[in-house]
Amino acid sequence: MLMIGGGRPSLSCMAPTPLLDELRAALGENAVLTDPDLLRMHERDEADLCAAGTPLVVTRPRDTEQVVAVIRAAARHGVPVVPQGARTGLAGAANAVDGAVVLSTVAMDEIREIDPVSRIAVVQPGVVNATLAAAVGKQGLWYPPDPGSWESSTIGGNVATNAGGMCCVKYGVTTEYVLGLEVVLASGEVLRTGRRTAKGVAGYDLTRLFVGSEGTLGVITEVTVALRPAPADSLTLVAVFPSTAAAGAAVAAIAARGLTPSLLELLDQTHLRAIEAYQPMGLRTDAQALLLAATDTGSRAADDLAGLAEVCEAAGADEVYAATDAVEAAALLQARRLAHPAMEKFAADAYPGGNGGLVIDDVAVPRGSLAALLDGVARIAAECEVPIGVVGHAGDGNMHPNIVVDRADPASVERGRRAFDEIMRLGLALGGTCTGEHGVGLLKRDWLAQEIGPVGVRVHHAIKSALDPAGLLNPGKVL
Amino acid sequence: MLMIGGGRPSLSCMAPTPLLDELRAALGENAVLTDPDLLRMHERDEADLCAAGTPLVVTRPRDTEQVVAVIRAAARHGVPVVPQGARTGLAGAANAVDGAVVLSTVAMDEIREIDPVSRIAVVQPGVVNATLAAAVGKQGLWYPPDPGSWESSTIGGNVATNAGGMCCVKYGVTTEYVLGLEVVLASGEVLRTGRRTAKGVAGYDLTRLFVGSEGTLGVITEVTVALRPAPADSLTLVAVFPSTAAAGAAVAAIAARGLTPSLLELLDQTHLRAIEAYQPMGLRTDAQALLLAATDTGSRAADDLAGLAEVCEAAGADEVYAATDAVEAAALLQARRLAHPAMEKFAADAYPGGNGGLVIDDVAVPRGSLAALLDGVARIAAECEVPIGVVGHAGDGNMHPNIVVDRADPASVERGRRAFDEIMRLGLALGGTCTGEHGVGLLKRDWLAQEIGPVGVRVHHAIKSALDPAGLLNPGKVL
Lengths: 479, 479
Fold this sequence. Notes:
2 copies of one chain form a homodimer. By secondary structure, chain A is an alpha+beta fold.
C-alpha cells in the first residue's frame, strides 16, 4: 500500500519505533500487540518466584516466513526475542525480559498432515496437545506425550521443553516422538532437521539438540511427530500405603519384577488431603501414600494388574483395589490430575489474601532411590519448617515436591528456597537430575551448572555461541 | 624406569617420533602398535569402495585417563585421531587416514554395573554388544539394539553410529537406549552427559548429539544404557509374495491396521537365491519377496500373528505359514542373518578371482513408500545393468539394496556407483533419508549435504568447530 505523507502518526502511550513499524509491515497490525494489558499477560509462564520483564511487543506470526521476519527485524535492532507457546511452563523458560520481542507461536496452529501408514503427523508449533491427540485419535492413532498441561499447552512448547507426563513410564517423553523439525535460527535462516522415516542417521542429531533447548537455539516452526496405534483399554489399580518408604519399595519391586505398567503415579498424604478438600472423591486421607497404576496390555492386562497388586501387597500396602470399570478408573486419573490445582488451593488457604505461593519442584532419581528421595524430602520439610507435598511419576523416579510458602513473609519464602535447594542437592546426591521434565528455564540455571559441571557448561556455551553468537534468542535461559 | 644414556634406539622400519614416545610412556609398549601388519589391519571398516589410509600408530587405551593422554599427545603434535571399535561399520566412518593415530577402544571392555531396578547398565565402549546382551540376560533384562554385527561390534561403535537392527521396528534404535555418556573431547577435557534416571531434561541433549556423530565430536569412554525386561517368547511367520510390490503393500497394510510386530524383515529373490546357494534352508527361491514377521505379545501373540497372516494374504501372498516351534523360528531368523555373507559369496561367485565387490547401501523411506522404493530399485538395476539384491527392515521402511560389481572392471564399478547414486536420489525423492542406520562416514558425505541442504551443512560445521576447532577428531568423516 502506497503511503502518502510522513508515515504513521505516533500513538500516545507507545511511540512507534522503527522495529514496531517493520513488524507491522511484515505481520499486519493485528499480529503485533502493544496493548499494556496484553504485554503484562505475556510476561511469564506458570513458574512461581521467577523473574520476568515487560516485553516491548508481542508478535503472533502465522507462518515460517513471518517468524523469519520477526527474527530478522529483532536482530537488526539488537532486540532479544523470547519465544512463547501457551506459557504453561513451570521453570520460567518463557518469561519475557524487559524490552524484548515476544514471539508467540499460538497463531501457527495448523495440523498439516496425519499419515496412518507412516504413523506420523506434521504440525505447526501452536497446535494444542489435546487438539492433536483428538485429531489423530479419530484415525485410530495416538500421540502419547501427555504433560499435565496437555489440554492447553502447545506442541511447540512441549518440544521446546521436552515435556513429560504420565504415560512416559511406558511410552517415553516428547523427544521420543519428534522425528523432524523446521527451525528458524537466530540468523533468520530456516533449518530443516530430521526426517519423516522411522529410522534415520543422516548427520548429527540436530532434532534432539533443539528438543528441550527452551527456545535458546532457534524458534520451532514445524514439527514432525511419530504416532503409535491407539493402546488397548487399560485396567487401573490403587494401592494405599502406611508409609512413603513402603510405596517407594513397591515401585522398585515392580521394576525388579519386570512389570511395565502404562501408568505409575504417587500421591502423598498432603496431596490426598488437598485433593479431598478441593473436590471430595473418597480418597483415603489417612494413608501416607497412594500409588495409582494401570496396565494396557489387552488380554494380558488382568494378569499384569494382578502382578502389580501382589507386589504392592508384599511391599506393605494397607489396601489394594482395582477400579471396577472405566468410569471409576477415569475418576482416579482425574484425582491425580487435580493435584496441581488442589495444591494451589491448599497454598491459598494456608496463607489467605493471595499470599500462598507454591514452588513446584521437579527432580528425578534412579527408580531404586525413590524411597530415599521421599524420606529425604520429608526430612527437609521438617528441617526447613515448610509444608511440602510430593506427587509425581513414581515409575520414572520423577517426583514433584511442591513447597508451600507465604509470599508476604520473607522468612517463609527464604525457608522455601532453602528447602528447594536441599531437594536439588539430595536429588543429585542420589544420582539423579535437577529436572526430570519441567526444564531449566530461569529456575534451575544454578543447579544445571552443578549437575553438568564446568566442562558441561563450557560445551553448552560453545553450542549456544555456534548457533546464536549474538545471544538474540531467549537470553538468560538455561545458561 | 630410569633410562641411562641416549634414550631408546631407533627401530629400523619405523623411526620413533616424540609422539610415539609420549604414547608409550602413557599407555605402555603393548598398547601402542606400530607393526605394519597391524597398521594395515586397522586401515578400514567393512565398507567397500571407501578410501582409507595407513595410520602412524594404533593405540589401545584401557581407561579414560589413557584416552585423554592419547588425545592430548596427538593434539600437541597436530596429528589426527581416528576412533575405532570393532571396525564392522559399513560407511567407512572408522577408516584411518594416512599418518593418523588410531584410537581403538577394544581394550576398554568392562561392564561396570547392571542395575535391575533402575534398568540400566554402565559399560566401557569396547564391550561387545552380544557380551552385554548375555550379561543383562542373566538378570532377566534385555538390551534391544541388535545390529547385524552384534556378535562382534562394540557398544561404543554402536553408539557412535547409532546402530539399528531387526528389533528396531518395535523397540527403536541405539539412541533410544543411551541415557548418558562420558566423552573425551578434542580439548582433552572429560565431559559427562545425560543421566542415570528414566527421565531428565537438564540442559541441551548432548548425549544424543554424540550418538551417531561417528567419532567426529569426541571419543566415547563410558556409556549408560537403558534396559528393558526380557520380552516374552515370540511367534514367527513367513509370507511369500509373487511381487515386491505386494510385499510392500503388506507392510503398509500392517502399519495401517495398527499391528506392531517385533520383527518385520524383507528378503528379495536375489537374496533368497543367494542364501539357498550359501546354505540350503528350503527357502522358496521362486518367490519375488519374502516377509519374515514376529510378535512377542505373550498371550496376545497368537492373535497378533493371525492378524499379520490375514493382512499378508489380503495383500496377495502366495503362501503364509507360521513357524511350528522355536527351532524353526530360529532357523528362519538365521536365514535372514545370513543375507550379508550369502551376498558376499554371490558377488565372489559372479566375479571370481576376488573381484566380486558388494556395495551395501542403506536407505529409509516412509513406510507407505516401501513398494515404490522396491520398484524403483528394480528399475535402477535394469537401467544400470548391475545385479542389486534388496534386504532389510521392511517395517521401518529401511532397505539395504546390495549392489554387485566387478572390481576388476572399471565400467562395472562405474555402473555400480551410478546405481548407488540413483538409489540415493530415489530415496530422497520419496521423502526418505540417505541412511537409515549405517551412517554417513565417507560413503554418504555428498548425499548428506543433498539431504540436509546448505543451512544444515552450515550448522553441522558450526557444531563441529565449536567442539573440535582444530579438526583433530576423525577428519573427513560426516562433513
